[in-house]
Amino acid sequence: MPQCAICGGRFAENECMYCNRAVCSSCMVLEGRKCIKCKDRKAVPIQQFIRRNLILVIFLGTIWIYTVYPFPFFYALGFDIDISAIQPILIASIVLAIPFIIMLRVWQKRPPR
């Protein structure tokens, strides 16, 4: 069993969702699954959020690039595409980026359990 990072107890069975440290049950706030040092934080720090969800962010980014910006791939394959077709795609990508940014910000403030 690892030691508690806060009080040094021997039975650190829980892990803080914010700092990923091993903590005992007496140093844990059970409502938010946070340690007593992280209980006043409103959101997960952005570095931890990106590091924890890196695979998901890369996966969503890759799908988004392939669906929204297929024109460089078409040019590479030899298809001739009119440049005026790119303007609605850029507008749609900006409009679609807004919900994704909001989703990631909300997810940062309330991490999944």
Task: Give the arrangement of secondary structure elements.
Layout: E1 14-15, E2 22-23, E3 28-29, E4 34-35, H1 46-52, H2 54-68, H3 71-77, H4 86-109
How does this model look, in words?
There is one protein chain. The protein is built from four helices and four strands; from the N terminus they run E-E-E-E-H-H-H-H. The radius of gyration is 21 Å and the shape is elongated. It folds into two domains: 1-40, no CATH class; 46-109, no CATH class. By secondary structure, it is mainly α. The two termini are 23 Å apart. A two-stranded antiparallel ribbon has the order 1-2. Strands 3-4 form a two-stranded antiparallel ribbon.
Radius of gyration: 21 Å
Say how many strands there are.
4
Instruction: Quickly count the domains.
Output: 2
Major beta sheet summary: 2 strands, antiparallel
- Strand content is 5-15%
Biggest sheet strand line-up: 1-2
- Annotation field: number of helices: 4
User: What sequence of helices (H) and strands (E) makes up the elements?
Assistant: EEEEHHHH
Question: Helical proportion?
Answer: 40-55%
Q: Give me the secondary-structure category.
A: mainly alpha
| Uncertain ranges | none
Overall morphology = elongated
Calculate the mean pLDDT score and round it.
80
Q: What is the straight-line distance between the termini?
A: 23 Å
